[in-house]
């Protein structure tokens, strides 16, 4: 009895639960005739209370329920492309059997103008092709035009219409106005003599090399052994802004020329009372570089007012001025005795320009660098010169030949804004912007000497001038912290470091006749002598 009941209950239970296969409530089409029960069967199980409304809704894709659209792929693509090209498409929600303006979406006016063409239909027929002038016969070489023939209706001269002309006139007038302010006339040159008499009792000027300093300054021989400078023995003050370059008088080194950002150039005594002898005033912006000729009777100055000026060292007169409306970054006389009337200047427009002093004309342009030219250094008995530039390369030129015969650029190289030739003429010391001094051979191969790399100082961003002791035993350089660094040439060890200036120490020169005298200058406006 009990078992019978149980089996009956089982049957009932099964009947209740498994009423055939139920259809998914989201289905819209069924391929057979289902019974009423199967179509409207409940979903099994309790409702999930944590489902959001979005998640609980019937979905057949991530973002919800997409009805299958009865558009074939080509029609869809056609409308999509038409919309992205012309900005209009047929409105998919309207019955499009009769096209009217309301059946477009997007740029409706465009659609009406184009009569609703799609991208796959060609528009109105293009006009006739432009005719070309008949090209003659290919066998006549001179008269044959071929594919280069002009169009029949081609205009040769493009003349601006009246309105355009008006606009152009305004622009040019503005430009001229702008240019005028910048290009003021070069500043008036004047000079101040700071010593009582320019000539001594024998009628000799201050250019005369003194013979009472305990050294023969006239000789060409160098001291046998040099020593490290230890202490400061003099400060020349007078510049009101940073000093940008210093140069010692050729051969003797008894005078010191300095140029500064206060637009002035000053001449100082190195021996005796160490006075300021003369000030040369004539630039309207900071002076960037100076260079003596071989005898020291004249020197050139290059400044940011875009002028290069030639001065007489003795009288202070400005002999001539040169400009090509670009900023000169460096200037050098040709050191050859028979070419003393020629000089080269590295410009901000990537060129090296060569002038003749006698005529004032540009006689040569070396235009191969890809960045502003920073330095020019004569090597190999002045037959060649080496230039460095912001393009991080080093180029070697034969004098008067405007194509570089050697180009040195490594991916690892940095810009080298200061270069010095060693006293024996064999090496070039280049201050590299990755805080090291690189040594290149200066004789023929211009190879980087990998054994001689001087580091340990901080110069990145500043063109600190390097120098050698006359006997080639030391290398000196300033740095960005205002320190004077001295390395041993043989071992490349950093021997000595002196705090020389408050700001950048931009240049250090070792006196060519002294065993341990070094002149430094800095952006604090001071020039110091160390011994």
Automatic annotation (TrEMBL):
Pfam families, per database record: WD40 (PF00400)
Location of the protein in the cell: Nucleus
UniProt keyword Repeat, yes or no: yes
Keyword list, A-Z: mRNA processing, mRNA splicing, Nucleus, Repeat, Spliceosome, WD repeat
Keyword Mitochondrion set for record: no
One GO cellular component, as annotated: catalytic step 2 spliceosome
Gene3D superfamilies: YVTN repeat-like/Quinoprotein amine dehydrogenase (2.130.10.10)
InterPro entries in the cross-refs: PRPF17 (IPR032847), WD40/YVTN_repeat-like_dom_sf (IPR015943), WD40_PAC1 (IPR020472), WD40_repeat_CS (IPR019775), WD40_repeat_dom_sf (IPR036322), WD40_rpt (IPR001680)
GO molecular function: mRNA binding
PANTHER family to which the protein is assigned, alphabetical: PRE-MRNA-PROCESSING FACTOR 17
Protein name: Pre-mRNA-processing factor 17
